[in-house]
Amino acid sequence: MKATAVPEIAGAHLFEPVPHADERGFFCRTFDAEVVRSVGLDPDAFVQDSVSRSRRGVLRGLHLRSGAGEAKLVRCSYGRIFDVVVDLRGDSPTYRNVATFELSGDTQATLYIPAGCAHGFQALTDPADTSYRIDRPHDPAEDVTIAFDDPELGIPWPLPPALTSRRDREAPGLAEVLKQRES
Questions:
Q1: pTM for this one?
Q2: Which of 85, 112, 135, 176 is deepest in the core (most CB within 10 A)?
Q3: Are 13 and 104 in contact (CB under 8 A)?
């Protein structure tokens, strides 16, 4: 497994496993504590795993947590997704940068997203399964959502949004969220 720093988002890393393929399919390690530790992360800090299944065109996000935030490992375990990270850490050298990735079940690459960054994705296949490993239990009272189509962010979503949650459709823009966080 190889770990690569993401230059657009300070502290973010992409973990790329080496699948072993044969006529049966493939096998690969999707999490390796030693590799995670080698980039300065505590592999024991992750306390909750979740998975979502989305149809092609479904858009989820942009989500983040208030308070201490939430670091996460994100992987597309089946299908393909267009994944987006926005750095909203005021003291970060990459503050307000946007990074995009295509994650797929074929590669099983995992993206580490530091606490304080917003995250969203769009399913490119039907279905697309996305796995999350987060560093603290989810608390819905800390959920923050930013409009996925905010022109200030200019995220180049590859497909027209086929379906979004009400929360995502009605989310405020980045400027409003940042203003709320300052108060």
A1: 0.94
A2: 85
A3: no
Per-residue pLDDT of the chain (183 residues; tens, 9 = 90+): 999 999 999 999 999 998 888 999 889 899 999 999 999 999 999 999 999 999 999 999 999 999 889 999 999 999 999 999 999 999 999 999 999 999 999 999 999 999 999 999 999 999 999 999 999 998 999 999 999 999 999 999 999 998 999 999 999 999 999 998 876
Catalytic residue positions?
Answer: 63, 132
In our burial notation (b when 16+ CB lie closer than 10 A, e otherwise), range 57-79 reads bbbbbbbbbeeebbbbbbbbbbb
Identify which of 128, 172, 166, 167 has the alpha carbon closest to the alpha carbon of residue 153.
Answer: 172
**Any idea what DSSP says for residue 136?**
S
**Amino acid present at 9:** I
Rounded-to-integer distance, Cα 62 and Cα 32, Å: 28
